[in-house]
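Bug #77: duplicate submission created two jobs. Keeping one. Sequence:
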Amino acid sequence: MYTIDKSTSQQINAMKFVFILLVVFIHSEALPQLPYELDIPIYVENCKQIISVFTDVAIPGFAFFSGFFLFSREFTWCENMRKKIRSILVPYLIINSFWIAFFILVQKIPMLAGYFTAPEYKIDSLDDIINAYIGQVPLYYPFWFLKDLFILNILASVFQKILNKFPLIIVGGLLLLQFSDISVSLIYNKQVLIWFLFGGIWVRYRLDILIIKKIPSLLLAFMTFMVTLAKMIWTDNVFVATFSLAIMFCFFYILADKLLHSKIYKAVIWGGAI
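Kept job's structure:
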């Protein structure tokens, strides 16, 4: 059993609040598919690269805390699945069903059908409907994370047994996944799997998340600047990307601590607890 006190819980909720804002920002900057190319100035691309250094940690951060909270307590498969069906599967099915029904309807109306011709939204058969729910990416694209998270919770009891008896196997597997081109067919984004299990590793070795507070502010600021610069130079380097995620996690942990001591702390705690 890993003890999470009230102070740590509030700190994590504050981080989740920040991550929610980052996810909203990630999706807000996406451009629609156009039949022509936009001439985007280089400075805009550079700004997007810099911003991505900060936003890329949001999804791994959510996955980490999902694993962190789950593996911090004893649980049975049935108990965990009852909770996850209610909190993950039901919203996933309801929202996807709404959009499936919506696209079926508009594609039957001649005046509207021409506006909804993208292949990923085409619903012509039972196979299309099934794929909209359990395909690599669901019809409602942002819910890919919920699909991956639900699959990981189905396997959580197996992960728990391995973590308890052979934690180094998990550590080795995560390192191999992170620094190789190996993909996981069941999971859309392997970072969710890696950080979910990293949360379990953190609990297994009883690491104290409060240790992040001991990092000197000037050192963290310098490291944040350096990883931002490194990401600009080595855009696709997996080692730089991994180090960047770790530094950004610490950065937002400290930021969350500042928010908890600000005038909006109640809103921050409430938003992160949703």
